Automatic annotation (TrEMBL):
Gene Ontology biological-process entries: mitochondrial DNA replication
Organism for this UniProt entry: Rhynocoris fuscipes
Name of the protein described by the UniProt record: DNA polymerase subunit gamma-2, mitochondrial
GO CC terms of this entry: mitochondrion
């Protein structure tokens, strides 16, 4: 089954696995894969930074170390000053790591990763409570975009590395094995150990009337492995026709809309293509990603062949045009999830498309 999944996403230009020996060195992305990874990154940043109850600032530290060191402590101090030293605050970082230090046994986990990392800084009296909430929120985030939320769970792992008060690992469970997709750690103030005294003084906060070092909570995941996990989660085989369907969440889908048309008169073909482009360009004006059709297959191959290709690319909505659409402006909007069509007029597609994307 895993080989089948790999072949499908290579065939449809999502991702190619670059091997070194028997393990994956890196991923190479085609057009849908590149759009998908940007969508995942955007949703992650929204969840951990923008949609928070306290200030969380984006940074690019540029250092490969995940710890507060002499090289990057100034970035932490900058965030503290920017937040007027009021805890809690946080920073998020998206950074490239030549070789990530994930303790993952999955040979498909790429060695070369883009890491997504969150650091939160809290009063010691409040940190543990936040840690308990944060690990649950992070698991809910993974489940939000899944077809089977039940496959995301916490690992039963009693190992706690030195200097970490608590840690939890979020798993995605598949028939071929578990994906370790995110680690959440409660460091306490251990990350600051070994820094010079003058830096420690600058890092101190108040917990009530007591001056102390903030406690740190970290979560991190591989953006590349997140993409692979969601692709595996989205892959299905239709029972009736045994054809692959990619059921990506509409927020993550690389292309939200495309268009199709069954066999049409050659004289009408170019007009229908122009009409399909007009419909999809209206959606693009609203920032909705669309895949413009070309002929063939549009208007030349069987409609079911075109629908099968769109489903294999994970496209949620397909505008189905007929020759009558040229006269009436009405077309069928096919839903990948329901496999049903509803009639929509050209003049309404812009507004309706926004409604579908925000529902």
């Amino acid at each position: 089954m895993l080989n089948e999944v790999i072949k499908h996403f290579e065939k449809f230009c999502f991702v190619n696995l670059k091997l070194k020996g028997k393990k994956v060195e890196s991923f190479m992305y085609g057009p849908p894969g590149e759009l998908l990874i940007e969508n995942i990154k955007r949703e992650w940043l929204y969840n951990v930074s923008i949609y928070r109850e306290n200030n969380v600032y984006p940074f690019h530290i540029g250092d490969k170390s995940g710890f507060v060191t002499r090289d990057n402590v100034e970035s932490f101090l900058m965030a503290k000053e920017f937040n007027s030293a009021a805890v809690p605050w946080g920073i998020v970082e998206t950074r490239s790591a030549e070789y990530a230090d994930f303790n993952c046994t999955d040979p498909i986990h790429p060695k070369i990763n883009t890491l997504l990392r969150y650091f939160g800084f809290f009063k010691p009296s409040e940190a543990e409570q936040f840690y308990c909430r944060w690990q649950l929120q992070r698991k809910r985030w993974w489940r939000k975009f899944s077809n089977d939320p039940g496959k995301f769970a916490f690992a039963e792992d009693s190992r706690t590395p030195d200097g970490i008060k608590s840690q939890s690992i979020i798993l995605a469970k598949f028939p071929w094995g578990d994906h370790e997709i995110e680690t959440v750690k409660y460091h306490g103030d251990y990350l600051f150990k070994g820094l010079p005294k003058y830096q420690l003084t600058r890092l101190q906060i108040y917990d009530g009337k007591t001056k102390c070092l903030p406690h740190v909570i970290e979560s991190r995941c591989s953006l590349d492995y997140a993409l692979w996990t969601y692709l595996c989660d989205a892959y299905f085989k239709e029972k009736k026709e045994n054809k692959p369907v990619v059921r990506l969440h509409k927020k993550l889908a690389p292309f939200k809309f495309t268009a199709a048309a069954a066999f049409v008169n050659k004289n009408k073909l170019n007009q229908l293509i122009d009409l399909s482009h007009l419909i999809l360009l209206e959606l693009r004006k609203e920032g909705i990603s669309c895949l413009l059709p070309v002929s063939p297959p549009f208007g030349v191959t069987a409609l079911e062949v075109q629908l099968a290709r769109s489903r294999a690319l994970g496209i949620p909505y397909i505008a189905i045009l007929t020759e009558d659409s040229l006269d009436t402006g009405i077309f069928g909007l096919y839903s990948r999830e329901t496999t049903l069509q509803e009639q929509v007029h050209l003049s309404k597609i812009r507004e309706y498309g926004q409604t579908l994307m925000t529902a």
